[in-house]
Amino acid sequence: PIAEGSAHAGVIAQEGPYMVKINMETRKFEVGPAFDYLWVPGMGSSTTDFKRIMRLTTNDYINYEGTMRLASRFWFLGQESTKGVSFRPDGEQEENAKGVVSGKMIYDVSSTTMMRVPSTGLWLVRANVVTLDWSITPIKVIALIGAYNEWTLDTALDLEHDSRYEKWSIKGVNLPAGEFKFCVDHSWDLSYGGTPDDVRQNGSNFSVAEAGVYDLELNFAVFPNTLTITKK
Q1: Checking phi first, is residue 37 left (phi over 0); if not, alpha (psi -120 to 50) or beta?
Q2: How much helix, strand and coil, in percent to the nearest 5, is found in the chain?
């Protein structure tokens, strides 16, 4: 043990967000960078234009989440560069009965291995930088639910997606003035809400002020994901 008053102050050379881990049993601590985002490049993604690479967001600098098209393979980066923090798969990944793929990851700047994607499509991507767990959940059906159908899962109207699984839309739907959002697979396990310029899984309800016929389009090809609401 260090005698009281004899410990020296630590030094952080560069300003920015950091994560501090303290183990009271071993009386050791770690200081590392806290990431505002995790970038998710993959097979076919350019790593020279990071504005086109999708990201995961966080509320606590521990758990990260985002929805995007995945194809073949991917990995995680902690900055807008391949030079720096890179999370690669650690060991074998698993897939459960619902198609959720999960595994462990490791901080490794030298590896070229990637997490594998079973099929091209829209996926909810999650990562925890403390436990070093990652997972991807397939988004197969997105349906419109809300005041128009009394929030009934069975009668929620399915959206159609484009060939890249990035834009999901429904046209000519009658909506009353009130709230709505989007459920996944006609279940509340996953849902999409938020604001039109920042769509998030488990976000708050959307709303329209006037009753009418609307076209709705979710766009998962941009960051943040967006919703376009067009009154006919």
Answers
A1: beta
A2: 5, 50, 45
Give Cβ neighbours of residue 138 (< 8 Å, ≥ 6 apart). 99, 100, 119, 121, 122, 123
Residues 75, 128: Cα–Cα separation, whole Å: 13
- DSSP class of residue 208 equals E
What are 61's two structure tokens? 């600098």
Confidence class for position 13, pLDDT limits 50, 70, 90: very low
- State whether residue 138 is helix, strand or coil: strand
The pLDDT tens digits for 170-197 are 999 999 999 999 999 999 999 999 999 9
CB neighbours of residue 16 within 10 Å: 8
* Section 155-184 average pLDDT: 98
Euclidean distance between CA atoms 224 and 57, whole angstroms: 9
Q: What is the pTM of this model?
A: 0.88
Bond preceding residue 89 cis, omega within 30 of 0: no
- Contact (CB, 8 A) for 23 and 9: no
Identify the residue whose tokens are 């941009």: 222
Q: How confident is the model at residue 10 (pLDDT cuts 50, 70, 90)?
A: low
Q: At 69, list the tokens.
A: 């098209």
Question: What six digits make up the tokens of 200?
Answer: 């998030």
